[in-house]
């Protein structure tokens, strides 16, 4: 077995150009760990925020001056090439997908992960590129729409940012749940978002989506482009505003939204759920994919050596669906 691996380091917070390729010793799996040869890994908006150290109040957890763990990437798919002596869920040769979580380091050639973490067998019908992104936009959108928003058949749902990683998944998920879906996007993405299941598409550059009195049961702000106060007039009486992007400006609205009236602002990071709960959600997602009710959307595939370019493209904010490196 080779003795080294390639990875990408974040020596300090900053722009994509600070990402640095490094050669590291090959990790050896501990008793309950598996060593994975990575075939594809995701490049996400959240990865970019971690690289920049945003939001600032997260730095005590990430690292004050640079990321404490120092490596880039969370979502991945690949092949198990070695296992610890107490591993029971996986075997050498298994194709798997999952996420590194707060350990980071998925934008690499190899990684060691615990078998009881967010790690699943990859279906043969799913490519490594598609599997690598399931733990980002798809899982987050599933969590927010199913668990928090509790979307039901006939609900009116507005997706703010319908063309990105979260949005392209959210439109499909809400439509499959029987909701009447409206989504915002640029003019060039209107046909694409409609093809995902949106019954109405709003060009955010020319039309205001948050019209008072519209009566949305759920508003899912995938990008953090609005606020609860702005969304509230467009919500139904017991409607909820969901946003996975937490800032200090949003925190008071989340804490106080349930005190007056029935409209609510809800936030619950998917990453704080227990691994077994996340694996259960991923199993439901795989069922939806198998039933052709949900599909990942791939925008660009870069070589791992072009991670800086991939980060710059994601940061520009115009991607359609997902970006991976292989």
Quick structural summary:
The protein has ten helices and 15 strands. The protein is of the alpha/beta class and 326 residues long. It folds into two domains: 4-133 and 296-325, Medium-chain alcohol dehydrogenases, catalytic domain (Quinone Oxidoreductase, Chain A, domain 1, Alpha-Beta Complex), CATH 3.90.180.10; 136-271, NAD(P)-binding Rossmann-like Domain (Rossmann fold, 3-Layer(aba) Sandwich).
Walk me through this protein's architecture.
This protein is α/β, with parallel strands linked by helices and 326 residues long. It has two domains: 160 residues, Alpha-Beta Complex (Quinone Oxidoreductase, Chain A, domain 1), CATH 3.90.180.10; 136 residues, Rossmann fold, CATH 3.40.50. Helix content is 26%, strand content 26%. Helix 7 links the parallel strand 11 and strand 12. Helix 4 packs across helix 5 and helix 4 crosses helix 9. It comes from Seohaeicola saemankumensis.
